[in-house]
Amino acid sequence: xxxxxxxxxxxxxxxxxxxxxxxxxxxxxxxxxxxxxxxxxxxxxxxxxxxxxxxxxxxxxxxxxxxxxxxxxxxxxxxxxxxxxxxxxxxxxxxxxxxxxxxxxxxxxxxxxxxxxxxxxxxxxxxxxxxxxxxxxxxxxxxxxxxxxxxxxxxxxxxxxxxxxxxxxxxxxxxxxxxxxxxxxxxxxxxxxxxxxxxxxxxxxxxxxxxxxxxxxxxxxxxxxxxxxxxxxxxxxxxxxxxxxxxxxxxxxxxxxxxxxxxxxxxxxxxxxxxxxxxxxxxxxxxxxxxxxxxxxxxxxxxxxxxxxxxxxxxxxxxxxxxxxxxxxxxxxxxxxxxxxxxxxxxxxxxxxxxxxxxxxxxxxxxxxxxxxxxxxxxxxxxxxxxxxxxxxxxxxxxxxxxxxxxxxxxxxxxxxxxxxxxxxxxxxxxxxxxxxxxxxxxxxxxxxxxxxxxxxxxxxxxxxxxxxxxxxxxxxxxxxxxxxxxxxxxxxxxxxxxxxxxxxxxxxxxxxxxxxxxxxxxxxxxxxxxxxxxxxxxxxxxxxxxxxxxxxxxxxxxxxxxxxxxxxxxxxxxxxxxxxxxxxxxxxxxxxxxxxxxxxxxxxxxxxxxxxxxxxxxxxxxxxxxxxxxxxxxxxxxxxxxxxxxxxxxxxxxxxxxxxxxxxxxxxxxxxxxxxxxxxxxxxxxxxxxxxxxxxxxxxxxxxxxxxxxxxxxxxxxxx
Length: 721
Fold this sequence. Notes:
Largest sheet: 3 strands, antiparallel
Strand content: under 5%
Distance between the termini: 61 Å
Strand order of the largest sheet: 7-8-9
Shape: elongated
């Protein structure tokens, strides 16, 4: 044995996790493509043949719901229920799973069961949701593959409200689990939990300056700080934060009040102890904790001695029942600031009769002091929120209905259109936030429509760009956008700068009459035109190909479209068409990765699409950047051949680059950063070299067509059932 190595660990300890041992640790400015491959099939233990959407259809839904109802009052010694009821626990599990959703990029939310993994499983705001998942485990074990964790967590919260007495609006199954943490979601730049809000606002006194796409006010919170802005109580300032934060989660003022009041109608906050006595969070806990975090290391730490948020107490006097008790408590008393046993800021009644107090969670004979958070006080102090509260107080049935609908929206917002919902409790009503699209015809003559498009005089770039711009809005984060519905012809999309409104209007004026005359939807005709352009470009390259096409898209109307909600889908950059709306702190290539990930593309698919789009001359505004070819309009491999040709050299000039002949210095082409990253990044260059090979011209066309078809059909959930 080498004496110099005696006693050293024989394995690459931490090699896969330690920052200094990773590629991005050594080269932090390198383009990280991991987000495009984060859910590789190799991570899924159920295998490629497993189809959750088919499995969940076999589920005995009523038996599962009955087991959940029994669980609500089946208190466990290791984690006892408050007042013998888990309704508050499971409402919180579901709420915090769904509440991470944000409208700006559609990321977060409950649709993937991501609460099981870091960082969400260890967020300060998610303290003890790990206990809820362990309480659900026997049920998950029993029903196995017929129920995902994602569906089970949300269903548990919905059933909890039913057990408490609420008539819920409905429930849809269909959320498929992921199997490792998501790497694509930006939660903020802070390096510590609950860092002051100032770090994510340009001006913390102006909530609208919160950095996009964030919605929560601090790292590790779902919504706002319950103690006040940066932990300093001030209900009016908290109200302003709530309004902005909930709006970024797609909620209006009435929904915000309903969710806050309804969420605090059942359950309690826990802060009757010292948070410093808790063990590490689940992700940091040692092996003997078996993935359970925040355990009390010095005392009992359960029941009345539980510490979660640090705030202590129940809101109403009947915290296991759905009633108007929250409003009775909030508006029936005057409130003053106080401290919880854990030292958190909260509000208590100035005076209250013992009969109006909630009972101790373990002994009904003991009365405890109710409390309100700064967010609760905001509902009373803010005049707009107060007026909504008065409306609810005057009409309890309206409050219940409004909450039930808002809860349904909260827990289903990231599932996409209603066609994805499965099960007997799916509401029949179409809701505008589900982006409804009517069914389209499949009985028209596709070949005849194609012939009319070919004879229309539209150019290849007209056809390809319009189809691409229609489809590129799709984002797999919340299954919104895409070509189905042809919303590119409606506000706000028809006026987006990136859609070249004048060119778009001209192309639509040609395609719409063709659709009307044939019985096809405009959505289908737009996609069919793009497919025709691809076929023409491939033929020009010497490859005969038929781009797959499935009719049946419908056309949405203005009445079916929430224009404000759709505004967040506007592409601020599209590297596939070399478009950037303005200069951003984030590089153009990083913006390309973000869009490719939202569209569900792999790095290889992204590569072939960019190369093909450049060769066909489909850049925004007719720009020649990246058009490394003497025969634009041809679906050729010229982009890759010339990018990798060492007879060329590359030179920055202003904000772009010149591709020069290495011998003569003559400028041959110009390029953007997006173009050149396919030669500079080692992974992307490996893909580019595949398509630059002399023997892969046909493969290139085949791969391009497959990737193109994937984009055109990304929102065709009727084809994926």
